[in-house]
Each structure stands twice: as C-alpha cells, then as structure tokens.
Design brief:
4 copies of one chain form a homotetramer.
Chain A (H helix, E strand, L loop, with lengths): L5 H13 L4 E3 L7 H14 L3 E3 L7 H12 L5 E9 L6 H6 L3 H17 L3 E9 L4 H5 L5 E8 L4 E7 L7 E8 L2 E4 L9 E4 L3 E3 L6 H4 L1 H17 L7 H20 L3 E2 H5 L1
Parallel strand pairs in A: 1-2, 3-6
Antiparallel strand pairs in A: 3-7, 4-5, 4-11, 5-6, 7-8, 9-10
Chain lengths: 268, 268, 268, 268
Amino acid sequence: MICSSTDTHAQIIEAAALAGKHIFCEKPIALDLPSIDRALDAVERAGVKLQIGFNRRFDANYRRVRQAVERGEIGRPHLLHLISCDPKPPPIEYIRVSGGLFLDMTIHDFDMARFLVGSEVEEVFVLAGVLVDSAIGTVGDVDTAVITVQFTNGVIGTIENSRQAIYGYDQRVELLGSAGAIRTENNYSNTAILSNGHGVQRDLPLHFFVERYSESFLAEMAAFVDSVLHDTPLAVTGHDGRVPVVLALAARKSLAEHRPVRLSEIEQ
Amino acid sequence: MICSSTDTHAQIIEAAALAGKHIFCEKPIALDLPSIDRALDAVERAGVKLQIGFNRRFDANYRRVRQAVERGEIGRPHLLHLISCDPKPPPIEYIRVSGGLFLDMTIHDFDMARFLVGSEVEEVFVLAGVLVDSAIGTVGDVDTAVITVQFTNGVIGTIENSRQAIYGYDQRVELLGSAGAIRTENNYSNTAILSNGHGVQRDLPLHFFVERYSESFLAEMAAFVDSVLHDTPLAVTGHDGRVPVVLALAARKSLAEHRPVRLSEIEQ
Amino acid sequence: MICSSTDTHAQIIEAAALAGKHIFCEKPIALDLPSIDRALDAVERAGVKLQIGFNRRFDANYRRVRQAVERGEIGRPHLLHLISCDPKPPPIEYIRVSGGLFLDMTIHDFDMARFLVGSEVEEVFVLAGVLVDSAIGTVGDVDTAVITVQFTNGVIGTIENSRQAIYGYDQRVELLGSAGAIRTENNYSNTAILSNGHGVQRDLPLHFFVERYSESFLAEMAAFVDSVLHDTPLAVTGHDGRVPVVLALAARKSLAEHRPVRLSEIEQ
Amino acid sequence: MICSSTDTHAQIIEAAALAGKHIFCEKPIALDLPSIDRALDAVERAGVKLQIGFNRRFDANYRRVRQAVERGEIGRPHLLHLISCDPKPPPIEYIRVSGGLFLDMTIHDFDMARFLVGSEVEEVFVLAGVLVDSAIGTVGDVDTAVITVQFTNGVIGTIENSRQAIYGYDQRVELLGSAGAIRTENNYSNTAILSNGHGVQRDLPLHFFVERYSESFLAEMAAFVDSVLHDTPLAVTGHDGRVPVVLALAARKSLAEHRPVRLSEIEQ
C-alpha cells in the first residue's frame, strides 16, 4: 500500500515490484510520464498487480451513472458535465509541490470522465483563473477552471473545478444521452429538512473527501484484496493511472498556450 | 448481548444481572409487564447497566430531528407524524408469535415518539385494518394502522404503520412546531436521478432495516460499550424499554374496544 | 357566483334557483344541514346547476394523485395522510363566526379526502388542542387537530390541521396503496437552491391560498362555465358540498365527546 | 409587436421607428450586425422604445439567481453553468434558415449569461458536434455544443446546448461564487412523486418553452407596456438584443476555426 507523498510513488512501485509484491498505489503515480512508464514497466516485468487509488470509481453514485451507460439506460452519451469542488484550498506549501490543479485535483475527474463515458479523450481546452485566493496565483497555479473535453467517441464534456465551494465538497455529475440523462447529487449526513420563517433548509453536504468517500475507500481496498486473492482483473489498472496524467499535462499546456491541445501532443 | 427470541429476553436479563453482567437486550424486553418489571428489578438490584436495542435513536435523521427540538429550532412542538412501513409482511408463523403489530413493529415508533417529542404519552387511539394480506387477519392481527397519540405536554401525534410499502422500507418523520417544522426523507443507496422519455426517476430506497439502519446498529453498540467502559448514563434505559410495551398494550386495547385508551388503564 | 359570507349562501342559492340561474357557490353551503337541504331542494326543483367552490379538486397536484388512484398506479388505496396548515390564524372575530376549525378549514380536506380516495367516510375521530394561540380557545375553537377518518371501502386516513405553519401554507398529501404510493409537495415561487456556509436552502413555499391555488380558481370557474355552456356534469355537485359539512359536524361531536363518531349519528 | 420571421425584424423595426411607434421585437433582431445597427440607429433617431424578447429574464427562477448576485448572497461570482436543451430538434427546413444553433438557440443563453453575471463576455470557445441527428449536419449546423465563456470580470462560464433532451425542455443554471452557490431546477406541471416496485418517479418536466415560460411571456409584455406607459427604462434594450448576436457570431467563428475567439474580432 503506497500512500506516501507523490514524488516517492514511482520509486516505491519499482522496489515493490522487484520484491514481487502486489501493489496498491495512491494517485497520481508520478507527475511526469517517464517516471510513470518506468514504474509500469517494472510492474509488467515482475508480473505483479498494480491498482491505482481512484477510489471514486467505487462510489455508489458514480457506479450508478456508469451502470446507466452500460445498460443503455440513457442511450448513446452526448454531453458530460462533472462538478468537482473542494471546500477550501489546501495550504500554499502543499499547492507549491502539488503539480498544480490539474495533476492534483482534476486528475480524479479525468479518471471519472474516462470511466463514466467509457471512451478515451482526444483533446482538452482549459479556461482557468485565480478567483479564490491570489496567493495561489503567486505560486503559479490556478484555483478555478473549466476543462472542456473531446472524447474519441464524439462525446463532449466539461469538468468544473474550484478550490473553494464554501458550503462543502461538491461532487456531482450529469450525463445526457440520446435516450435520457442521469445526474447525481451531493451526499449529506442526514435527510432532515427544516422550514422556518426564513426559508426551507437542510444541513451542509458531507464536508470533504474523508466523509464523502469513506465507503469508496473501503470498497476499493476490498476490490484490490479480492483481485489479489482470486487473481481477477483489477478495477483500476496502471494504464488507468497513467492516462489522467497525460490529460493533466495536456490541460496545463492548454492553459499556458490558450488553445485546444490534443493528447497526442503530450505523448510525443 | 441478548438477541434471542423475545420470550427469552426477560429470563436471560435476570440471569445476566444475577451474574453481575452489563446487559444489552433487543426490544421488546417482554410482551407482558410483570415479566418486564421482574427483569428491571433484577437489573436494579444487581446494579448493572441495561440498554435496550432501540437503535433508531442513533440514526442520523432522527437524531437531527431530536436536536432541532432540543435547540428550539422549531419552537414548541405541536404535531408529530411518524411513518413506519415495512417492505413486506413477515411469515405468518412469525406474526402468530410476534405479539401483534403494536408490540412487534409500532414499538419502535412508540419509542421514537417519546424520544423525539421529549414527553410521555397519555392516551392512544387506534384505527387499523387487514388491508395487505387477509392471512394476517386470520391469526388475529392487523397489517395497517394509524395510532393517534396524545402527549402529556399537549403535542398531538400520529403513527402510520403498514406491513407493506411495496417500494421498500419507509421510515420518515415530520414534526411541526410553533417556530418551524422539520421532516426527514427515506435513505437511498445512491443519489442518481434518471430522466427518460417516461419520467424522472431514482432507484428504490434502502430495502429494509438491515440496509437502512446499519450505521445505527453500530452506533448503539458503540454507545453501550462506551457507557460500560466509562460508567456514563445509558442512551436507552430499561424504563425506555418498558414504556413502549405499555403503549403497545394500550394500542391493542384501543383497537379491541374501539375507543381512546389512557395509559393509566394499562398500568393498573 | 355566490362569494358572500357563509350565512347568506343557502338563502341566495334558493333565490337564484327560483330565478332559474345556474349557480356557483363558495364553500360551505351552510353551517347546518337543514339550510343545506332546503337549498339543494330548491336547486333540484329548479333544474339548475350548482357547483360548490372546492377549488382544490382542480389543482394539478391533487388531480395527479386522483389520477394515480383511477389508473391503478398505486393499486388499492390503504392509507391517506392529508396535511393542510395555514400560515397564520385569521382574526379572532373571524374565528368566532367561522363555525370552527372543522367547518372553516378542515372542510376543504374532507372534500379532498372523498375526492382522492373515491369513497365515502363512515366515521371520524378527533384529537385537537389550542397550541397556537390561547385566544382561539377562549372563543371555543381549536387551532391544531388530527382527524382520523375511516372510509367505507376500508381505507384509513388522517387529516393534519394547524392554523399556523410559520413557513407558509402547507398543502400536501400522501396516499399509500397495495402497489405503490404517491405524495405531493408544496408549491414554490421558484426552484432556486442556495448553498452557503450555513446550509442549503430555498425560499419559502407560496404563502397562502391566493398564491398557491390561483390556477385552480381559474380552472374551477372554467369548468363551471363549460358545464353550463355544454350542459355537461358538474365537477363538484351540491351533494359534494353537503357531505363535508356532515363530516365537520361529526368531527365537532367527536371532539366534544372524545370518542369516534359515525356519520350516521349526524344524519339522524 | 414584431413576432414575424427573423429576416423581417430589422426592416419592420426601422419602419415602426419611423412611424414613431414604441417597439417590442422578438429575438434575434437580425442575423448580421449591419442590419442590427441600422435598426438600432433608426430607433435611436426616432426616440422610441425598443424591447427585445428575451423573456427568460422575467422567469422567476432566473430572476432569483440574478437577485442572489445583486444581493451578494453568493459573494463574487466565479463559475457559471447554463444548461439549455430542447426536447427535440425543429424541422430541418427551419434549421436551414435559423442562422444555426448559436443564433437560434444559444442566443437566449448568451443573453442569460450576461444578465445573470452582470458582466460582458470577452471571449468564447466552442466544442460542438452532430450527435442527435445527422440530417442537421447535412445542412451545415450542429446539434450539441458546449460554449466556454470568459467574462471581462473574470467569471468563467459554460453553456451546454442540445437540440434533444428526450425527457423535455431542460432549462437550468448554476452559479458558484466566493460566498456560496445558487442553482435552479426544471419546472414541472405537478409535484407528485410516485413510488412503486420499480422506482421513485415523477412526471416529466414542462415539455417546451410554451409551457415552461408562459408566465415570463406575460411578464415581459407587462414590463414593456409599463415602460411605455410610465416612460421608465426598458428591462431588455436594443443593445441587449445586439450583444448576443455578436456572441453567436463569435461562437460560429470559434467552431469553424477551432480556437478561442475574442468578441473584438467580430466587431471589427
């Protein structure tokens, strides 16, 4: 189980693979492709299993959306909209070494986009800004972004990120298809609705990822253990860990050059 | 931990108390008051702790309603409406020995009514029928009921029970007060909403008590262990286990005699 | 169109019938049965049409519930729960001459109960109190009530009334049946949901009957005009205007004598 | 009141202005800027009033979002997401002369974006495709699009358009700000929720603009009449009618050239 800081992931993966251990590693594998590729090569040569910690794939809401796509409940997907906002920015020291918004935060959404639509991404375009905290800009990062995503199967998507949704973690998705649409809501600690002289209200949604995704963290681990014990296919492979990094690098380039960037430009 | 069939609870409580053990016992303590009172006496003489398994008090939704009352968020309570329906009736053999709808099913709602309003009940009136399955009537029970409840503090309440809500477990409450109202919704396995050419829909609510109350079962046990370890007051006492039985007996009498019945009539 | 004070309705109906006019009259026809029966006799002798102003039958929400019953979408109805609360009590002078809660306010709910379930009521039981404003008690009325209703077809119902839901008009219904359940929500002036650091909230529901039922007032009038123009059956007949008065008188008797009262006791 | 086909709007505006008439004109004023500018010049010279038919500004949901911005209820706006989908595509003959998706359909959303955020747009980027009906592609149009919008005040927005949301008109907005977020839902003909053995469902949303925006059509007309009668400022000016056309032309250019396009490029 590799839950250390990102800059040590690839190296530990290699060491663990050499030692013949099956590996669960937190996302992202690394912030650069050469490190990732070395790690994935080591895994392949050793013939061990490597599952990447994209826990949201195990969340009941996202699973239900994926299921709707697989069952054809919404027909052929057309438009994806992912909303993913944190309750507040992490400390500036963290942001400085995080690899930036796309590698640190959007990377989960890039994985989710691929997972839900069931297709690879061809091109991204980014519009972003420093709207939440100017200090984030001073370390060269952005805190608010819309990432437009063109999938190879024709689906068009947008990912909406903010480092600060003051009401708490905002984790939702909408997917419109030829035969219908499916959308999810935030999760709450209770269902109570209070009406008084001022309005109709409920408590805030679950505050952050620890509360919101507690069940999916357990489920991803159970799935990993199950794959190892019964030698069954992994739910999130090393390849699934690599692609979102390519997407994040493309997003970074799109932001820098203010133009749509194809993933093939990153792979070269 | 006494999780055996109801007719053995009181006797095991007495034995455990004699052995100086702290006791967690499933509801109801017994189906008759003399057995309950003997058991509670044994507990008191032994100076051990006894917590009754009214797990719903530990559910996040009901806790939030209780909190609203305690904090004065809805002012002084006026009207309580409890909805409590099972997805389908238990086997007839179970119903035959269950003590009837009020002692088997409504007993949870009687506890919840006292817990939420924070007052004792003075009188009940029952309207009930056999609407779900005529076999239930042949063993002398009802499957559908409205129990009207008069609290000593003036609050008026209704409890709505059915052995069959075909869409799954229905567990909700509404409480109207002088300064507002609070209500809860059913719990679901996911938040996804699917819109197609026929309608806007979501999956069924959590099916039955095992799914719906899984967290509250853990929480009640944690609370019991905590009370024992730190010798703190119990969240659900032996008295809390006794009163709902009185209420159920009053409900049974109200149904039989088709008139409002005061709890004092049962205590005599 | 008779929209004068209640004590003049019956007399104007008789005069209008004598004049050969088709009549639309606000509810209730009168507060006593002899006056109602004289008015209905006059209408029958004159062969004119008489529609009573139970506008809620034309409301989209209640119509949809009725439709669900008619189409069998919920199977055979078992349990009805009607919630009907005003935002604040009328002036004491009004209450004094209103005929009391049951004839003034619950009368709409009695009509709705018959309309939705499609069956007559056999018996009522009332639990009520003065919880909102003690001044209402001094003029001999109650401001908070639960009316338990036994229908001839076996359905059990409850009507929940309060003179004060501080958040605004509360007009909802739930109907549980053998194959499903249907429930309605309050209506709002907009669908906006605001999330901030304190909670997730929306504006108050439509404040009172003028806003809430504006469309149904238009629709009932259009239906009346249509019935007159095309000589088609009325949507709400004189008989539909009479029965809720019988129910209200039974409710009053139940409250006074603290026992279930059969409608046949009132008809004698 | 100019409700003729789009290609006649500008010419009739000029004629009406010359005749000294106050003018209400449906959107868009014209599909090209020179025609619009000639019409607006004529209006200005004649000193008459010209209101453009952006009726959605008068819709209760959008008004509430605008109000939240004005009152500071969500702080400083950061991210706008507009969803605007039709239930089904218009006939191909209509699409052929419509000016294309951006001038025909998105134009409402461009107006709404400016109205809600209270800022002008600087640049747009379009990702679009023919996913609904290939016939739409054969006449040179698209049926599915995401338009990314950069506002001058820093706000980032996306507009999501589809010619076909099979469940009916989908008209929603979300606006995230520094102190909160506000979002609206679709409007429905009733609030009834039906639960049966298959799921929990409600009827489809209001089907199309006639049902969905009926009240706003009345309100925009009332506002126009009011402005004329009392010589007060118009709610939607000729300038408000011109800018969305500029936006639509920029969107068209962005789609053709697959790059972000600044509005200043269109104005040259």
